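Let us practice reading a record.
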Amino acid sequence: MASGDTGTAPFCGACGWDFVRVNTNNDIFCDSCGADLRRFLIIGLIPPLDLGAVPTDTDVTFSWTDNPEADSTEYQTQTDVDPWTDWAPAVSPIVLVGPPGTRFCIRVRSVLDGDPGPAAELCEHVDHVPATGADEVSGAEGTWTPAGATVPFEASLLVNGDVTITANPGTAWDEGSHMACQDASTCHWDGFTWAYGTNPPPPATGATAGAPGSFTPVPSTPPADFAAMAGIIADPLTLWTVGQSVQPADASDAYWDSAAWQVGVAPA
């Protein structure tokens, strides 16, 4: 056991040790609670000084000043999804690499005569970077790139061109494909620009008689109203029978009279 004052260490060590020499007596005070650590702890076991962190968008660099009265320094690390690593010899600085947003924590402690002291602890995140791309997942929610990037807050930022997001692929996305923003609003790439919502089915090109009938292909986006029925091919092309029709998106009715579309359902 190392020699020295063996009094009880103050609790301030549990919330982040640091110390500063403040007078000609070389007293050492805990920054957390102001206690004179020489009265509570063996000097060689006081944790390393000035533990700090500098994040970038690829890593976090942790650094400190070793306790000159310790024999060595040890460290361990942790992320949000991993347990603490085993204690290992430490040399400042330590660089921990991860994708944007990764939270790294580190503990460092002094060792004297084979005995470890209490640990200083600090956590920091790898810097976030804004999303610059959007990869389609056919028929489902896509993924933002690069991995771990900050997602746009709302779809209007893309639709209005306030942020630049490159769609992949650059052709019109499949039915159901979309991107979700932080506020849960959605948008999709229509082959030319960003548009609100989930990519809809292709426009209908045909209409099959029924009561009511259906638009083809299946699935497809119905015409908005009767005026938009122009160009829709009727099936059959003969006069539809009594009560048959199809319904555009506005829930009106239209039927084929063997020559043109008419408003309503086929009469007797």
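A brief commentary: Residues 156-159 form the longest helix (4 residues).
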